[in-house]
Amino acid sequence: MFEKMKCVSCVICKQKDARKVNPFTKSTLNKCKITLKIRQENNLKYCDVILPSEVSFKEGYHRQCYANFTSLKKQYKQNLSTISLESPPTSDILSRSYQVFENIEVVQTTPELEDSVLFPDNPPTSYQVVESIEDVQMTPEYEDSVLFLDNLSRSDESFENIEIVKTEPQLEESVNYINNQDHQPEVQDSPGPTPEPATADLYALSENTNVCIFCTRARRKVKGKHIPLFSLEKDALINTLQPYKEFLENTTVYKTLQSSVDVKAHRNCRVEYINSLRMYNNKPKTEYHKKLEYRDKAFQEVCFFIDENIVKDKKCFFFSFLCQYYTETVKKLAAENGEEIDSNVGAAFFQQKLRKKYGDLLDFTLMHHKKIVGPKGRQIDEYLYSLIQEKNIV
């Protein structure tokens, strides 16, 4: 047999390859003859192919060549029913179908699919389907005959719907699915089973649980990338926030954390929130931090003076007077705590802070190499300048 297979050649592409060339069967040869006749009548590609007169082991076909050769456009397939060649009888096919193939649709496929078993759309019961499958697999004559089903008349009502299953494991999965469908209990209007504890907790949540507990948003982008939400360990987070409870117990984040079952957050939001709590840590203040605190309080006092006298009462002051008022306030605050620090401040830096604080509410006017601070739109002339020199105020 192996010696014969060595001589097999593809009649379509004229190439020999014993490992890839499949020998003709009666059904495949008849199908090729019908296809060749249509191609010759319409002068289509492969119309010059020479087919053997009968089945032999010397001539065969490649699987892909067979698929290309038997593939026809829809307009040419309509002529299949009018072409008659000697074909295998179909009476045996109908008698051995066990009424499983009541609704069959002919599907044109490659030889691989044609050699696979046929699966009915509406099997009567699971055991009948299995019996029919075993019969198809164990009867070679029936398998060869089924290969020629697509040449039968489409008007035959007994072959309206056929579904070709590619492999046997897929067929077994389909049969198992049918068995499960047949034995499924009917749905009743009764309450469903009690969910698992984790699932029950999810049911108790509101729709707002799918947002970050810190930023209250579902989506966040960092450097162009979406940051996904993840579930926090509630107990671990509460333990982390415990040292700051007196500062956080009235905040929305802490209240939500206490009342929620499932807490979600962005990783970046969690890190930023935990880092922001460092301001509550009781750390000893350095000289630098003390100096910043005194300067901040002194600047607030100067701003209060400007609000009352310049913005509200429309008075003018030398800028040097405001700087002196600021430095003296810093010294006073440090002395109250028994400390002495350097209170000098740069004029440019102090002016920049005032501009940032008040914007267009203040005007800085330079006259006789001295800077005067006044309300917006106030014009300073020589007379007003002399009054400022006398009283340092207008």
From TrEMBL:
It comes from the Eukaryota. This is Uncharacterized protein. It comes from Psylliodes chrysocephalus.
